[in-house]
Write a structure and sequence with these properties.
By secondary structure, the protein is α/β, with parallel strands linked by helices. The protein has a single domain, classed as P-loop containing nucleotide triphosphate hydrolases (Rossmann fold), CATH 3.40.50. It is about 35% helix and about 15% strand. Strands 2-1-3-4 form a 4-stranded parallel β-sheet. Helix 1 packs antiparallel against helix 6. It is globular, with a radius of gyration of 16 Å. The N and C termini lie far apart (about 40 Å).
């Protein structure tokens, strides 16, 4: 199938975006990654990142080559994507307490201090920012969005894969996608 759109996996950090990238790639859509950030204990199958997305506001030259592929972007970077293309966004949702716990554990393992904000304040900021993002993306004619809850993707993968398959064109290898899901990696639960 020819996909004349860019598939984007987005969400908050630590919300299951790397797992979703793996699933979509296993389903048959090539992943746009650079391999710079290596797999580690926090993401044993890799991060699936592509550094140029961080500079999209200054240089969006990578976007035309991403058509027919899947790329991972933090939701705030979607504001910088150029108009005139079709984007299908798979937006990962995860319990905010789990996101914050996972982020703290990762930063501790890396020996880095977290932000200076308390968890409750950080949750408030996430809720506010995600609300702004939800309103913005709903008004963008170039964007279609499918929300996927991380816990549902782990606990009911076939149901979520069916939704993904329909959203991304209906020709994905759903069995290969299901084999990617590893419930043992769902370690930081609320």
């Amino acid at each position: 199938m020819s996909r004349n759109f860019v598939t984007i996996v987005s969400g908050l950090p630590r919300s299951g975006t790397s797992m979703m990238m793996q699933m979509i790639e296993a389903g048959g859509i090539p992943a746009l990654t650079d391999g710079i950030r290596a797999a580690d204990r926090d993401n044993p199958k890799g991060y699936y990142e592509f550094e140029p997305v961080k500079q999209t506001k200054e240089d969006a030259s990578w976007v035309p080559g991403a058509e027919g592929m899947v790329v991972k972007m933090v939701y705030k970077l979607l504001y910088d994507l150029p108009a005139g293309r079709e984007y299908r966004v798979v937006f990962m949702r995860r319990n905010l307490d789990e996101v914050l716990t996972s982020q703290k554990k990762m930063l501790d393992r890396l020996g880095r201090a977290g932000g200076s904000l308390e968890d409750e304040r950080m949750k408030q900021l996430f809720v506010q920012q995600l609300g702004e993002f939800d309103r913005w993306i709903a008004a963008q004619p170039s964007f279609q969005r499918l929300d996927v809850d991380y816990k549902d993707a782990i606990e009911n993968p076939r149901e979520q894969i069916a939704r993904l398959n329909e959203f991304l064109g209906g020709d994905l290898d759903t069995e290969a996608m299901a084999r990617v899901v590893e419930p043992t990696l769902y370690r930081n639960k609320a």
